[in-house]
Amino acid sequence: MAADLGELLVPYMPTIRVPRTGDRVYKSECVFSFDSPESEGGLYVCMNTFLGFGREHVERHYRKTGQSVYMHLKRHVKEKATGAAAGAVPRRRNGKVFLDLELNRDFNGEDYEYEDEAKLVIFPDHFEIPLPNIEELPALVTIACDAVLNAPSAYKKQELESWEEEIQVSRHARSLRQLDNGVRIRPSGWKCQKCEMRENLWLNLTDGAVLCGKWFFDGSGGNGHALDHFKETKYPLAVKMETITPDGADVYSFEEEEAVLDPHISEHLSHFGIDMLQMQKKVGCQHRERCYLGTVIQVLFSIPDFQRMYVGNLQRIFDYSPLDPSQDFATQMAKLGHGLLSGLYSKPPMKSELIEQVMKEGHKHQQKGVSPRMLKALVSRGHPEFSSNRQQDAHEFLQHMVNLVERNSAGSENPSDVFRFLVEERVQCCQTRRVRYTQRVDYCIQLPAPIEAATNREELVAYETKRREAEENMQAPPDPVTARIPFTACLQAFTEPENVPDFWSSALQAKSAGVKTSRFSSFPEYLVLQIKKFTFGVDWVPKKLDLAIDVPDFLDLSRLRATGLQTSEEELPDLLPPIVLPEDTRGNSIKTPEIDEAAVMQLAEMGFPLEACRKAVYYTGNMGPEMAFNWIIAHMEEPDFAEPLTLPSEALMDPGPSTSESPMGGTPPGNSPPEESISILTSMGFPRAHSIQALKATNNNLERALDWIFIHPEQQEEESDALSDEADTQPNDNAFSNGNNTHSDSTLSPDRGASGPRVKDGPGRYELFAFISHMGASTMSGHYVCHIKKEGRWVIYNDHKVCLSERPPKDLGYIYFYHRLSSS
User: What keywords is this UniProt entry annotated with (predicted)?
Assistant: First the structure.
């Protein structure tokens, strides 16, 4: 018999693999459905790809790949015999077969016993070989089967990614000195202490200074103040502000000149009042860590467009899925949508009066519902928050899902179109009263919750007084009081003008006070409203405001329709604010930047002419030998490559107002920009014609020209070469935005068509059909449930439990979903 099995498997030996480190073995769930070893047909695991397939889908994989050998896993669940000792260990046959097998169930495991069964199945004849069968199988097959049976779960997160292994612990981490200077870092509103930069900010872990990073050639970054601070103080470690999460943060060592690990980052951050990293020790929600995902998915698949896209096209999506369906977004969405809507894995809503009857039916094996583990693993891959097992913000995950749907719907139907709408933003300079209108794409309206508008304000004041007294006297706090805020007050707060921080008025060409108001340029088919219930405490921990808002079932927003520029209004000039570069001293005269002679010599040692090296370092703004080397490679064939560097006049870098009479202060007709400035921009990778256009539009100011390029991206890259020669000698009338069109093309989404982004505009009248509620004190803990209105009745979805909701708590919701009413 052994010889017979060996001969039988010989043709398939090249296709049988032993799982290697990094291979994921899907032995607990089908990649196309929620079938598992506990399902009636069991689960088939491919012995080559280690993907799992239910009985309905394994034939598809065989036809597509020709892979013939599968391991069939089957778990038989039986109710314990009457009189079995309570708490007895379940009886198992082949107890090691399903080592580390993760299955979801909502029944008590102590009331059941399991019998596990495994066998090899050879397609297409379905020849079966029971396991274990060590004596009769070839050694390679035995090793492969044992490795598959004992492989860890496919959903376990890898301890360390390969790129993380290369980062070393800083030698300063253990002995880092931190000053007791009383510095406490706020959870928001940061900016560089030496300039106005609000991006690429770094927190020095010794003295708490918040400073900007270095400037990059693409216009991002900062003015290098964090590095300057290190040179002055020798404080070595800094953490990038926007990377701080409960999992850690990005740390850089100026002294070691590389990214490093800081094992004590939690303590170092808490020194400045940042206790977010301690949250893992304070909160726990491990058994419900996916409820934020479940509630969002339930609502999405209650919308016909999502049902039609993924469930309606199920067979087509499955038939054209890639070889690894677990990594395909459309496949996993179709799988989950079918699991939710088919009724195969979930019970219909139960009437309240039948719950007791159902409970009396006793210890029957209940359907376990669906667990979106495979989709979660896919959509959270690489995301610092969603890839963790902590509770997350449902609103942030909704935005993440909409982005993924957008990204994976290119060239096909896009169900997220139903959420998309345009917002008109009107910004007014308070001093000149002139305005600017812009449009932006959005998918959700965030409504503020003004506590001052609460109808029970006196009760809230009394509670706060009692709370402070109890805190001072070290007594138990009083029972909390919920602030009751009218929905009309939230809507009013949304429509009121808000101050624009650091507003730069193009009419004054200086900073001034500005206000912004927002209106709907279009109304979406499905409107999403988020109530701003969460705020950050001084310890960086998100805290929830105890609010109750009388959200209406029917909503009319027609009065918030945008009106555009009015005849009585005057627009702000289309001028750009000056940007700050590291070399910009903002004095009355601009000094010629020094040349990094060390970088020059490093390039010269490679064999390049000395003068060419000096030009390369100069034209790349002293950004290091690597950037200068790229400039050299791009300009080696030029006739003046090795000629001495001729520095431009100070007028080139003069940021003052132009005396030109050309529109917007541009270069007068007939005057070409200096070749040095063109070379700097082209060395950064920008087309020559576009660089000339930018310089002419900004009076040859290099800093403003760089900003102009990013705000006015090229519309037709294929025409750049053809326009280059003409642009050298002739002014480009299209270098300036038309006054009647300054808020259209430049502010729309990148995927817009010729007429702008796709929106399903219509009347602004809506009806509430779903809402997501949060129970708990923070987005990082607690539990999410959702209510969906089906056939006129409200149904609550709480993890795997679904039932009718007689009195849905609509006033306590966090995210509300409305669908548009027909015009009739």
Answer: Autophagy, Hydrolase, Metal-binding, Protease, Repeat, Thiol protease, Ubl conjugation pathway, Zinc, Zinc-finger
